[in-house]
Amino acid sequence: NSFLTKRGNHYSSEMSSPVTAPDSCSRLSSYITYGNISVKQVFQKTKIRQKYLRENKIRTGWLRSLNSFSSRLRWHCHFIQKLEMQPNLEFTNMVRAYDKLRIKRNDHFFLSWANGTTGFPMIDACMRFLKQHGWINFRMRAMLVSFASYNLWIDWRITSKYLSKYFIDYEPGIHYNQFQMQSGVTGMNAVRIYNPIKQHIDHDPTSIFIKRWVPELQNVPDEYMQTPHLLSELMQKKIGCIIGKDYPKPIVDLKLSTLKAKKEIYSIRSTTKAKNQSKLAYIKHGSRRKNRSISMFK
Q: In whole angstroms, what is the distance from residue 159 CA to residue 144 CA?
């Protein structure tokens, strides 16, 4: 009720930022996961609220937000259906052409990511927040997975098992499908590589969230918050934050690792084998909305 009448007014514009999302999102996911409330009940209550807003011609952003929210309820069921149709998606790439990706394990990269000590403030803050609260908004989840899969080149089967222990709203159908999507192995979804520096600028421009969850950076000047490793040695000593000691240096070169990941993914994506398998995956799991087609695989 608080979401539908108070907190959800700016859902569509505030759900992406870890600063505003805890209040502006419904926070119903864990209750849905454990069966305390059903998706049907949430959907019907939302419809009643939408009808009220339309009849009373309330145009303050509510309808846009609730339309966005109701569409995510549909996607919730869509992803669960995928795992029901193909249970091995928990541990098998949707498109098997990608099976030879990320076969080498880098324990240093994994532990740095898992502990929130990658040297990328937005990544580290989100991981620390998630591990304490058991929840974080979707965009930041996607960013954490994207960074691990593309920039650190860690297999999604390793990271998905790790985070499944922390999400209080852990739902296997959503969890494993999203990990595959954000790792580029479904073949039918766009390759989205989330730049943690851009996410920092877009969704925590004043670094309120960063400074709370990465207190080591509390005294870093605003202009260096996205890249504290670029601080001069003199400035590091002055503010009491030695990069490499008090806070780690970036464990990878963001630009180079992104370029390498794209090269690897698209080299497989462009093969006939991958295209054919992707088409079959789309026929089996793709959206049934009329405005979508499989012509992109021709």
A: 10
